[in-house]
């Protein structure tokens, strides 16, 4: 059986299932690796001030340790989501939001330096229409994340628009300008023409592990990874997909002979080992 990696997921031990319930189910379904990306404070009922972000970062690290206790390999990530920029712009001036986001990134850098986080995410750009100044702030934070990637050789998960070749080219050039390793900066939730462009340009990407998207992705060379992006919110159960369902979908496609074992091994092991610097299962 091909070991399955979930290259981008979330966990909510306060309101949702948490790793206590998710990790053993994923492991049982053939999972070996999880990239756990912390959510914004309010998802956990925590206030969105600096102290709240720090608490949320600590909660994320605890959840990663919990998942490891079930025998999974875990990369633990925390960041400042582009939607948080808009949220804080409701009550702060643009320069205050930028300063605040950078302070959160200082906390992230410290935890990376201490080896308690293995990466930064999600950061990036809004995928919806917003004020231009929001995008500028979000891009400053994204660049700071890529600098952390360069300085400590850790992964970054980018949340971006589905801009096809333009988005992928922007990431490739940005990473080159800053001087980070190209394999460390990952375009999360890439679909359709955006995933295709990322694969063509050699930019690492994660594709949603729902059957429809994945069947389309299988037309591409196996140079991407798969994610559940499970938000673990009881109000939206199984969104985008449960990690164990994501594993099941891939093994189903294998049984239906729609994909080879070799191809799945590249998505779930080789590419994960390369981008996340983890040892194979
Ligand atoms: Zn996500």
From TrEMBL:
InterPro entries: Metal_Hydrolase, TatD-like, UCP004961. It comes from the Archaea. This is TatD family hydrolase. Pfam families: TatD_DNase. It comes from Ignicoccus pacificus DSM 13166. Transmembrane segments: none annotated. The keyword DNA damage does not apply. Signal peptide: none annotated. GO terms for molecular function: hydrolase activity, acting on ester bonds. Keywords: Hydrolase.
